[in-house]
């Protein structure tokens, strides 16, 4: 009885507000999603001791009483946030863990900048238990500025950087010119693009070790899963599969920006891998090298007895995709390609 009530309540939330009397559903409206459970947790992290720092007096609120703040002591850093949604009638044969790229958060998978449902909803509607995470130092995972642990300074992107670097605009200066690549599928109107820029968060380039630890802790908690990783998280997808081959049922890499440990390719021999690349790569200044590194690593995995399928979307007749494939207007077409691949591996029924 309790589960039925919970599923009905969550379905109402997922369906959005009710329509006024006499109004009709939009033509593209999706049916409600029924969930058996929905929640979140934090996982991972390590304790760090700070000493030798001066005590400060801080006024936390205007008109309040100053407080004495001693920054010396033990801190917990390197934890990660995850939100899970479990469908009422699961069809995926393992949970689907969705890992975002650099300078972003789990919002990558939740919705698109122009208000469409994201890949989390796409796969949830097909019966996949989904776990969307905010990695170390991002979003709801928390933040630290302890230089001895982060090892560097945070990087934050300017407004024009993703437009030019994520293969939305036609190269350097394209944001100022308002020049989108021909046929580009990213919603690049100003309102939608600014919605995307609002999602950008500071990132470190020096916390890969902490981040991998947190992802391994997530796998240890959730158990055997399908890992879907985008961009920077490609590194963590490869490495997590190499460190926990018994916990990764399949690896889906959406434009991975890095590869795994070449010395440990044999650990991947029993894990099916799908690598997906979008459009405009050949004329980009960086992506031919990034893709080439990925393809060479895939060849090494195959040579060790593994299975890696590399998909270049234009060769499948799917054109116009930016680096943010899951947000592109044809993103659901790519999601269906991934879904079909997962089903072909016996991971969906």
Tell me, what's the shape? Answer: globular
Number of H- or I-type helical stretches: 11
Query: Ranges with pLDDT <50 over ≥5 residues?
Result: 1-27
Largest sheet: 8 strands, mixed
Question: What is the structural class?
Answer: alpha/beta
Rg from alpha-carbon coordinates = 21 Å
Q: How many angstroms does the end-to-end distance come to?
A: 27 Å
Total strands: 10
Spatial order of the strands forming the largest sheet: 1-4-6-5-7-8-9-10
Strand content: 15-25%
Order of helices and strands: HEEEEEHHEHHHHHEHEEHEH
* Residues in helices, as a percent range: 25-40%
- Please state the average pLDDT score: 91
Keywords:
single chain; 349 residues; alpha/beta; 8-stranded mixed beta sheet; 30% helix; globular
How would you describe the overall organization of this protein?
This protein is an alpha/beta fold. It contains eleven helices and ten strands. The protein has helices at residues 2-15, 107-110, 119-125, 147-150, 160-165, 174-177, 190-197, 208-222, 233-243, 287-303, 331-344, and strands spanning 35-50, 56-58, 67-69, 73-87, 96-99, 130-134, 225-230, 248-254, 273-277, 308-312. An eight-stranded mixed sheet has the order 1-4-6-5-7-8-9-10, sandwiched between helices. The protein has a two-stranded antiparallel ribbon with strand order 2-3. Helix 8 (208-222) crosses helix 9. The longest helix has 17 residues, at 287-303. The radius of gyration is 21 Å and the shape is globular. The chain starts with a helix and ends in a 5-residue tail after the last helix. Residues 1-27 have low confidence and may be disordered.
């Amino acid at each position: 009885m309790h589960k039925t009530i919970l599923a009905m309540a969550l379905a109402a939330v997922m369906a959005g507000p009710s329509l006024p009397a006499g109004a009709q559903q939009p033509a593209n409206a999706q049916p409600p999603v029924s969930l058996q459970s929905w929640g979140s947790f934090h996982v991972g992290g390590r304790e760090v001791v700070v000493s030798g720092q001066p005590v400060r007096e801080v006024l936390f609120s205007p008109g309040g009483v100053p407080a004495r703040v001693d920054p010396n002591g033990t801190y917990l850093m390197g934890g990660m946030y995850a939100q899970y949604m479990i469908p009422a009638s699961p069809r995926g044969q393992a949970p689907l863990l969705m890992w975002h790229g650099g300078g972003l958060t789990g919002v990558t998978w939740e919705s698109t900048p122009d208000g469409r449902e994201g890949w989390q909803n796409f796969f949830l509607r097909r019966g996949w238990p989904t776990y969307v995470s905010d990695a170390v130092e991002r979003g709801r995972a928390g933040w630290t500025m302890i230089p001895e642990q982060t090892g560097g300074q945070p990087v934050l992107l300017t407004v024009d950087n993703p437009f030019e670097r994520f293969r939305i605009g036609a190269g350097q200066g394209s944001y100022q010119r308002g020049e989108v690549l021909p046929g580009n599928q990213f919603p690049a109107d100003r309102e939608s693009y600014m919605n995307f820029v609002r999602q950008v968060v500071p990132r470190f380039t020096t916390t890969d070790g902490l981040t991998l630890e947190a992802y391994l802790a997530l796998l240890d908690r959730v158990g055997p899963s399908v890992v879907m990783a985008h961009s920077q998280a490609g590194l963590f997808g490869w490495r997590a599969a190499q460190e926990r081959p018994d916990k990764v049922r399949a690896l889906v890499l959406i434009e991975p920006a890095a590869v795994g440990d070449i010395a440990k390719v044999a650990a991947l021999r029993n894990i099916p891998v799908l690598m997906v690349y979008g459009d405009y790569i050949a004329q980009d200044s960086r992506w031919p090298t990034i893709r080439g590194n990925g393809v060479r690593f895939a060849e090494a995995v195959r040579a060790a007895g593994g299975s890696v399928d590399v998909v270049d979307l234009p060769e499948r007749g799917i054109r116009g995709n930016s680096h943010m494939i899951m947000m592109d207007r044809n993103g659901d077409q790519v999601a269906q390609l991934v879904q079909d691949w997962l089903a072909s591996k016996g991971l969906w029924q």
